[in-house]
Amino acid sequence: MGFDPWDAAFVADPYPAYRELREQGRALWSEATGQWLVPHYGDVNALLRDRRLGRTYLHRFSHEEFGREAPPPEHEPFHTLNDNGMLDLEDPAHGRVRRLVAKAFTPRTVERLAPEVERLARELVDGLRKDGGGDLLTAVAEPLPVAVIGELLGIPAADRGLLRPWSADICGMFELRPDEETARRAVTASVEFSAYLRELIAERRTRPGTDLISGLIAAHDDEGRLSEQEMISTCVLLLNAGHEATVNTTVNGWWALFRNPGQLAELRADPGASDPKKLSTAVDELMRYDTPLQLFERWVLEDIQVGGTFIPRGAEVALLFGSANRDPARFTNPDELDLARADNPHLTFGAGIHYCLGAPLARLELAASFGALLEPGLPPLRLVREPRWQDGYVIRGLRELLVEF
Known about the structure:
By secondary structure, this protein is α+β, with helices and mostly antiparallel strands. The chain has 16 helices and twelve strands. The protein has helices spanning about 10, 15-25, 40-50, 75-85, 95-105, 105-130, 135-140, 145-155, 165-170, 180-205, 210-220, 230-260, 260-270, 275-290, 320-325, 360-375; strands at about 30, 35-40, 55, 135, 220, 225, 295-300, 305, 310, 315-320, 380-385, 400-405. It has a five-stranded mixed sheet with strand order 1-2-10-7-3, sandwiched between helices. A three-stranded antiparallel sheet has the order 4-12-11. Helix 5 crosses helix 11 and helix 10 (about 180-205) packs across helix 12 (about 230-260). The longest helix has about 30 residues, at about 230-260. The two termini are about 35 Å apart. The relative contact order is 0.18.
């Protein structure tokens, strides 16, 4: 089976195809996607840090100069929202925005959230237990990060049901070759979410609180403050990046545990009570083993070579995170789930200047949800039936995960 992001069998298990790609070379042209595929850990790690590549090219070239067509005008609301977020900015704009966001989104901010995150996780798991089971995705995996990001941003509880649909519709544009219906939904969600946040920001300007939006408004340095659009794009990025990754790591991780009963039994025997690092080590391994973000795209801003293969300016590379995290050149027995894996520099959170700013919060949420589900005295969670995968490949996760106690 070759690299085919639109094939259901490939999406369900892309790892054999990745193995073939790594054997074939270090940079391979994909006619189907129009990209250079980079499957090796060392190359992916290096290119994430290489400033000859970028998430955008518009800080240096026009669309015409770069040999690319401008997006359709009707897609503009999505691109305005997306292009002003840290993930798609390059320096100097990226450094300025990240520095200002970091003034508000500090380690102490995450630490303050810890008791609430743990309380929410226990509450959701308790509800699932009282029901005797259900869909782990909709009962625990989705509502936890939505509630946390809502709490972080200061979004009223009554409005938080809007967040997940907006996030899902916007993230549809990150898949390869999204169709017009996907684009239409993403544009609508971008307009609605932006309008909602604009009103919330205006309210916080007059009545600031302890939430992150108030912190973003207050953040400033010698170069000034965040623009309103930068604040809106930051809030949406925090929801989309943090939420999608946390949801899919949870359900993908439990599916991996069910397929590795020996590892699950060891984790259940001591889910971190005697060793606080044990659960966090296990969560990192689950992120490596079946990463929720399989592919990360970068534009080639200057000619480069990867393993002797020339890649010209104007090309696009697809950094295969899922393949890099299973590369035997970096990980011992990479296709085995080893919840005690100590040497685990996985690339799930990226690397370089775009390393995930929300990684500490994601780890906190994941440790809380896995910890609550593995609580001593709780009946063991059991799989009801084998799950099906969503159609998306870039952001890869299950449609549902039906479980019972």
